[in-house]
Each structure stands twice: as structure tokens, then as C-alpha cells.
Amino acid sequence: MSLVSLRDLHVTFRTRDRTVHAVNGVDLDLAPGETLCILGESGSGKSVTLRALMKLLPRFAEVRGGIQVAGQDVARMSESQLTDFRGRDVAMIFQEPMTALDPVFTIGRQISETVQRHERLSRTAAEARALELLELVQIPSAKRRLAAYPHELSGGLRQRAMIAVALACKPRLLLADEPTTALDATVQIQVLLLLRDLQRQLGMGVIFVTHDLGVAGEIADRVAVMYAGKVVEEGPVAGLMRGPLHPYAQGLLGATVHPSMRGKRLTTIPGAPPALDVAPAACAFAPRCEHAHDACLRGVPAMRGPEPARQARCVLVPEAA
Ligand code: ADP
Ligand code: MG
């Protein structure tokens, strides 16, 4: 059974002066223990999709479609069910650790309180778990760091502390929203490798949002590329790196600094992503696509591909015979 199943997810933000069709029919599945990377440029709906999985969108957001996590219907959860669900079944880590950490409490206290909120544990047992978690995320001098406040830690250690809080109750699903983007390159790699180790050790399913193809190459089993609120390509990471099917994914790969690109010219994708004040009625990438023709403007192409596991939303993609 899928750990995550999104079916035709739509999210629209309507305010007095503006409408944004942020997510326009996303279907995604994640198997237990699998790592999926969602790739795409800024504004393509990656964060909104993740937030929908935890019902963390603002109240005024219009959300439609099926959202199942660990066999539960997230859209129908009550506030008290959500409190149990968040942290215990699914946890999220962010680019900026201070969005998740509370500046007025020590790291140790934040972890032990998270544990006690979900599990009947004595204070001593919860404190022991906090120490175990800081060791798990490889914070040096963990025992001493329990008494530290978030501002006393470096950026990299703060990121590790946030991961420790997220893992406090060993969730089955970890959602990661560009958690390494703000870090220096060397620290970024350390945190990525840590996340990969933790995923294997704990057998968690992970959905990892990034705009960095190199990051996806390091940790993903599967990749979903988003454009204008839709998945435009999906498949195993190796296939996407070797030969992306969708012209947008080809453009992304061409614009990436990567060892496999050595000696090749870096390219950029001309034009800009569409305004999302109306939901796209045709291929949203067509205005920027050098291969676009009439059929691309006639309607939204369906996903198709050379094999069931590799699909793209483009009329030019060859289909299985
Ligand atoms: P990204 O792929 O960069 O993570 P997002 O999912 O954050 O993109 O955003 C997708 C679109 O939804 C953007 O146009 C963004 O401005 C809009 N959006 C996101 N959150 C809100 C909100 N709370 N209110 C209004 N618009 C929002
Ligand atoms: Mg985002």
C-alpha cells in the first residue's frame, strides 16, 4: 500500500485582489521507505503540495482532491486528529530552522516536549530520548548541546537540531522543503548525507523538495518535476538524469552545473513561467518550448511514456507500443 497518495490535487488561493492557481491536478504516490524528490523552479507549487499533505495551508486556501497519508484521509481530519498525526505519522523540515525551533526553549526541552506530546513517557525517559536523537543526528557533544538555545548553534547544527525534533517520534513520512538550500556547500552535503542515512536507518518515506538537480541525484529514488502546479515528468532518478523526456526537464538539466555536464555548454530556459491567475488550459510550458506546435495549445496533454514508471506530460514523448 502507498504511504502517500495524492489524487488530482488542486489548491487555489483567492484573495480580494488576486487569484493564484498554485496546484492544478497533482497525482503522486510514495511507497513506504521510498525517497521522492520534487523538482521545479520557484513558484511551481512544490511547497504548497507538501503543505497540503499535512493540512498546513491557510484556511482561505481552496483545496480539492484526494490526500491520503498512511491510509488516513487528511482532508477529513479534525484538529485533534491533526495534532496526533503531525509529528507522530508525518513531520516536516524547512529551509530555515527557526521556523520550526522555538527561540526561548533549549533544544533538549523542545525534543522532550515533542516526545511527551505524542507518547506516554516520563520526563526522564523523554530526556534520554532527546539525547539519543541528538546523537542520531550527529551533533557533537550532544549531552552539552541539550542545554543550548537555538541561537547558540551554528547554521548546520541548528539544521540538525530541527531534524532531531522532526524525528522525535520516528514518523513514517518525512517532508523536507529545501532543507539544505540556505547552507554552505560543504555543510549542505553533510546534512544531505545525514538525511540519506537516517532515511535508511529508520525506513522512512521521504518527500524532498529542491530546485537542485544535483541534490536529487544524491538522495532520490524517484523524481517528479513540477511546472505551473502540475507534475510534467515522473520517473526513476537515473533515467531522468540520463535522458529527461519533457522539454522543461531537458531545460532544467541543461541549466545544471553537474559533473556529467563537464565540457558541455550550460543553457538557460528562455522566457518566464506563466502567471497562474487562471488555471492552465493547455501545456503551460508551450510558450517557452522550442518544439511547441498546434497540438500543445489545444489542451493539457496527458501523462505518457515509454514505460509505466517513466511518464511525461508532453505530446512529443514516445509511448509504449
Ligand atoms: P514553490 O514551488 O517555489 O515552493 P509555492 O508552492 O510556494 O512554490 O507557491 C506556488 C504559488 O502559490 C506561488 O505563486 C505562490 O505565490 C502562491 N502561494 C503560496 N502560498 C500562498 C498563500 N499563503 N497565499 C497566496 N498565495 C500563495
Ligand atoms: Mg517552496
What are the salient characteristics of this protein?
321 residues, Rossmann fold, 8-stranded mixed beta sheet, 11 helices, binds adenosine-5'-diphosphate, binds magnesium ion
Compact description:
With 321 residues, the protein is α/β, with parallel strands linked by helices. 32% of the residues lie in helices and 23% in strands. The chain has two domains: 219 residues, P-loop containing nucleotide triphosphate hydrolases (Rossmann fold, 3-Layer(aba) Sandwich); 81 residues, no CATH class.
Characterization of the model:
- This protein is an alpha/beta fold and 321 residues long.
- It contains 11 helices and 12 strands.
- It folds into 2 domains: 4-82 and 173-312, P-loop containing nucleotide triphosphate hydrolases (Rossmann fold), CATH 3.40.50; 90-170, no CATH class.
- Helix content is 32%, strand content 23%.
- It has an 8-stranded mixed beta sheet with strand order 6-7-8-3-9-10-12-11, with helices on both faces.
- Helix 3 packs across helix 4 (123-136), helix 4 (123-136) crosses helix 6 and helix 6 (155-166) packs parallel to helix 7.
- The protein is globular, with a radius of gyration of 21 Å.
